[in-house]
Design goal:
- This protein is an alpha/beta fold.
- About 30% of the residues lie in helices and about 25% in strands.
- The protein has seven helices and 15 strands.
- Strands 9-8-7-10-13-15-14 form a seven-stranded mixed β-sheet, with helices on both faces. A four-stranded mixed β-sheet has the order 1-2-3-4. Strands 5-6 form a two-stranded antiparallel sheet.
- Helix 3 runs parallel beside helix 4.
- The chain is globular.
Amino acid sequence: MESKLQMFENRLTKVFRHIVKLARRQHITCYRVYDDDIPEFPFSIEMYEDHVYIAEYNRRHGMEEDAHEAWLDTCLELISKVLHVAPENIWVKQRQRKENRKGQYEKLSLESHEMTVLEAGLKFKVNLSDYLDTGLFLDHRITRSMVREEVKDKKVLNLFCYTGSFSVYAAAGGAAEVTSVDLSKTYLAWAEENMRLNGFDTTRHPFVHADVLQYLDTLKLNTYDLVIMDPPTFSNSKRMKDFLDIQRDHAELLNKVLLATKKDGVVYFSNNYRRFILEEEKINATSIKDITNQTLPFDFQQKMIRKCYRLTK
């Protein structure tokens, strides 16, 4: 066990040294430092300024619960030491909730911790304690900047908008109007809060509580200059009328989006399905570019499962 821990420490130390330099150079304060690099340590570890967010992937580890807790505490001590972060600033998310978490880190899942972080000069609320994700998908940092660069005076639609980070970037890029759509009222309210945090007028940028699959059928033709669509791989939310399977449904979804897009308008489409294959021949776009590699941030070079495309009508 000792030697495995030593391996983990060496790996984390090496990666952290490298990544922290790149982050500083780019003035980035939220970034990933480790993602399941060693199978025996199935964590994703992210820095949010002076806090650390750790998600433990759900794996069969073969340990009794007490042994697993002790092992986790040892790992957390090591992470605290290597990343130079105080234990009280470390937040652990276990992919299955433990009811009776004990030990030094037990408060992690009990206290709620929200903070405001900066990315590219913009403010975002993140929550390190209450959800499976923090509210800011770090892997889309470059994609968000691309959107920001090309939306001046344009009409933008952000579907499956989650906490609205793309919407904030679009507003910051001078978009004439940004419409954000999501089925979750919690995330929509969060998206609105992110907009306000950055001083944008939320009356000018509508937030729509809707099931995207049905909402697409209500859109007028040739309305938007730019659309962002980053859907879940599968969704059968109780509130969702239809079951979404992104491999099966993406061509139909994209064609509906393209109908609502102006001529020469752009659609950014991404998803996290590992085995995703884009069915280009079924999609009514004049050009489709796979931009997965050029939207890959420095902290996701080793492991990127999402795909990203830029479609032009």
